[in-house]
């Protein structure tokens, strides 16, 4: 048995590395992206209206999760997970290079499209490749995924620190360049380790028949042509991009639910369980629409309201994005131990989702004591405390999310149910960008109050509905 990487198979190190560097580049870029858009040209930015800029960030984040569905389809039908992962990393690196070297909004557009498509492809397949390293019954599997999760958060912690330092001292394009270098390091490491992966990592699970290649290529080209036409006609614009992604994601989610629930290939128990997933889907959307404002409203808040002065030195704005990954690394182990200790006595999935939404709403209400304050009036420790509450909410709803999704999934629609979960994250992320246009730094109380109580209301509604939801879930907790 191969135990060379902390008791795990050695190839895990290569996937750990490429995922860590991908998260380094992703969160590093995201930490300075909004600032780059709304800072003035004199400050090195693009001078885009703040409300439009937050909408673009939300649309971009939602598109990343939408692209996980494309990445999974390409792996299942055409290329296999390992190849899609490898080439997705190249696409991500190209996107960061575009942001670093191409000027103005063209560089922004090309860069964000490439990073979104590449990140979706890599995110969809990295987990699948890790799974191929373990045989059925291998007790190391959970520990291996924990190590993999550590790599994700290590990259998320380091990325904003490096890019924020470079942006503050040398300019935005140096920060984007560092993200590209980080992805290049991950690619080089992974390139040497690819040959050590099991053959099952490259298997195409459900090959697309050759006679359908032409139809698929035609549909893809037609889809691209429609998008280009809508952009040229002014139907899709920078200022309504978040709304467009919200509508597309919502239509896709409704279609997925309809296809699965109306299928004659599933049992009545399966149909009931998918119906029971709907309340969890709605609450998950609500949670992510607040949680993902770390990259929109919290960035603006940190830039304009937060006292980032530490002993005469001003901390870069993007460093705020490195706080949450530290708490995730610490608390993921704590929560795993708690759930293991409780065993069958642990809260059911609907209760965990309800608690996650309620705690997330409380986190937004915690902004109120410092609302409408003067510039640099909010203490740094206050934001650290609020982000701790963000992370506690995340522990209740994010790790159990995919787990309960796979438990509720009918055997014939396993992949589609996972896609539905990612659609809920995509929808929430897009809404986070759309909501940010209503944030007014001069009048913050209504914003934090209304959204906080909406999240609490969603959580309470689910909690009061736990019994009927569990009845629909037919034995799944």
Automatic annotation (TrEMBL):
Transmembrane segments: 24-41, 53-75, 84-102, 108-134, 146-166, 172-192, 213-236, 242-262, 274-291, 319-339, 351-371, 377-397, 418-439, 445-464
DNA damage recorded as keyword: no
Presence of keyword Membrane: yes
Record-linked PANTHER family: PROTON-DEPENDENT OLIGOPEPTIDE FAMILY TRANSPORT PROTEIN, RESISTANCE PROTEIN MDTM, PUTATIVE-RELATED-RELATED
Major facilitator superfamily (MFS) profile domain segment(s): 1-469
Membrane topology: Multi-pass membrane protein
Domain of life (superkingdom): Bacteria
UniProt family annotation: Belongs to the major facilitator superfamily. Proton-dependent oligopeptide transporter (POT/PTR) (TC 2.A.17) family.
Keywords assigned: Cell membrane, Membrane, Transmembrane, Transmembrane helix, Transport
Protein name: Peptide MFS transporter
Compartments, record wording: Cell membrane; Membrane
UniProt xrefs under PROSITE patterns: MFS, PTR2_2
Gene3D superfamilies: MFS general substrate transporter like domains
InterPro entries, A to Z: Dipep/tripep_permease (IPR005279), MFS_dom (IPR020846), MFS_trans_sf (IPR036259), MFS_Transporters (IPR050171), POT_fam (IPR000109), PTR2_symporter_CS (IPR018456)
Pfam families: PTR2
